[in-house]
Automatic annotation (TrEMBL):
Protein name stated in the entry: Ras-related protein Rab
Species this protein is from: Apolygus lucorum (Small green plant bug)
Annotated family: Belongs to the small GTPase superfamily. Rab family.
GO cellular component: late endosome; lysosome; membrane; phagocytic vesicle; trans-Golgi network
Membrane topology: Lipid-anchor
Keyword GTP-binding: yes
GO biological process, alphabetically ordered: endosome to lysosome transport; phagosome-lysosome fusion
Signal sequence, renumbered to the chain: none
Subcellular location as annotated: Membrane
Record keywords, A-Z: GTP-binding, Lipoprotein, Membrane, Nucleotide-binding, Prenylation
Major localisation: membrane
Function: The small GTPases Rab are key regulators in vesicle trafficking.
Length: 180
């Protein structure tokens, strides 16, 4: 008998970056299309599932891993990164330090995990809180930085306003699909 329904794919996507850059808010916006001003700083790893209908021919399930308060415990990350298909590294446009630390996050990722064929895990760089006025990092600097450090792409986002949230994830999914 024919299988019913569309073929499905499951991808593990991890979201990393310094505390308070907006990782949890981004996931909430993407999965539930909502924004809350304050989240409790829960400790542990949270999961969220986003189901996408991809070109009407396939269902994609994204298992989103939110590092939830473990950001300082870098020894945690090996377990967390295991078998990831894609990654988002986020910083806050109003926090220069969070931008500089994205390099540490990228190096941590690349040193602890890779795809099954040995290639690096595709990684998007997201410049969150673009709704704020006090930007501390120049666009040209981000552009150069993302190329120099092998990110697949970068964009400004606002989890608050819902700007470029779907589009940035769609770009990552395209790349993960090409890697299949
Ligand atoms: P996390 O620690 O990286 O998970 O960051 P949270 O999602 O908990 O967000 C930290 C704080 O930044 C919260 O007060 C959020 O409401 C706020 N925040 C998150 N995203 C945005 C955004 O796009 N714009 C603005 N203005 N604030 C945001
Ligand atoms: Mg969080």
């Amino acid at each position: 008998p024919r299988k019913r329904g569309l073929p499905e794919k499951l991808f593990k996507v991890i979201i990393i970056g310094d505390p308070t850059v907006g990782k949890t808010s981004f996931i909430q916006r993407y999965v539930q299309n909502s924004f809350a001003r304050d989240y409790k700083g829960t400790v542990g790893v949270d999961f969220a599932l986003k189901v996408l209908h991809w070109y009407d021919s396939q269902v994609i399930k994204l298992q989103l891993w939110d590092i939830a308060g473990q950001e300082r415990f870098t020894w945690m990350t090996r377990v967390y990164y295991k078998d990831a298909h894609g990654c988002v590294i986020m910083f806050d446009l109003s926090n220069k330090n969070s931008f500089e630390n994205t390099l540490k996050w990228k190096k941590d990722l690349d040193s602890k995990c890779s795809l099954a064929d040995g290639s690096p895990v595709p990684c998007m760089l997201l410049a969150n809180k673009c709704d704020l006025q006090d930007r501390k990092i120049d666009m040209t600097e981000i552009e150069k930085f993302h190329k120099d450090n092998n990110f697949i792409g970068w964009t400004e986002t606002s989890a608050k306003e819902g700007l470029m949230v779907n589009d940035s994830m769609r770009f990552l999914v395209e790349v993960m699909m090409q890697n299949e």
